[in-house]
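<tokenise_the_fold>
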Amino acid sequence: MIRLCKGEKKLQLIKEMNYKQNRDSIYKYIIENSNLDQKMEHELYVLQTYLLSLYREALETDINLNDNNLFNREDFELSADDVKRLTILMDFGEADRCLYAAHSTESILPISPTERVSIASIVSGKSFSSSYRSSGRSNMDQEFQCGTISYLTLEALRHYQKNFSKTFHQSQVEEKVYEPGIFVTSERIMKMVAKLLHIGVDSPDPKSTMYQPIVFNCSSKAPFLLELFSRSMWLLSRTRREMKVSTITDYPKVMQVLEKQLQMVLSRRPKDFERLTAYMTEITFEEVLAKWQEEKDQEFVDLQNNNASIIELKESLSKENEQYVIHQRINVLKVGQVFPKVTEKKTGKYIFVQLSRNEKELFIFDIKNSKYTEQMSLQDKISIGDITHIATGLNCKHVRL
């Protein structure tokens, strides 16, 4: 029905479908209790795309970072004087808020008390690392300059700061020390998430089945998009450490890995925030490298099997290659090979089998030792023309010797 409507009526239908009771019903009666076929998965993806399109205007509305009418950039961005020293960075493990109504208190990344470490110090002080001074904002590449962010990014930052304040402070420190800054990174991650979820597209992908169950299973106070953004900011911190990078030149590589991590996480379709976080924990940098290698290998196989030029070349050379293989195997037979002698009682004897030069007979010699073939006595000759059957695989008695 939404597909057929336009304008205000379409928007009103989308808003009605976004009511929590409607999303709950879809989750309970369709997603949770059904083995969905591909057609239904596509329909859920289409509905999800329409629901998330409610964020499009906020995504496309830019805010000047120096406009104090909506926010003060100092609320999110640390100055050089705010960072005194960097201690051990905290793993994203302490949730600072209680999820609402349908959600129990959730730890973003559960860890035992003995595993907890301190957050980077954020205290007033004049001293600041020399590494930051030498790589300050004035020396940053033009690509990483940021004068605006989207309104959606601002809302995501507010959500992150309000609900996960300790991890938010970690992101503040990392972005100040490693660059390019909290606003540049948050804007890039929001655009990355929007791209993966197809927010802002004119129409849903006609073939996609990439729906996310949590879209239909979250409260309005803990929306999927903002929760995913918060976790993505933490995942960036962890990925940086796994890749052991700390300079602005490595930033594009880290963001490329992060996008692949999010893609792999979303492909698993987590059904709640706890599983979403667990999947993020599992998809490490090493997992991404393994996935890329797997895709590269599969791409090579597909190229071999589907590329028209390669198929034509294989067909033109197949007969010639077949003849090469036959000649090579015949030459091996002419050299000869040692085999265990098959008898009713295993006596440890051996035979040496060799193809005649005219390729018409097989010579079978008795030998005393498998390593020495100097002393051989001809036992039998078998005409190739008399052979009617060949035992292969498990049917061959030599397999069991």
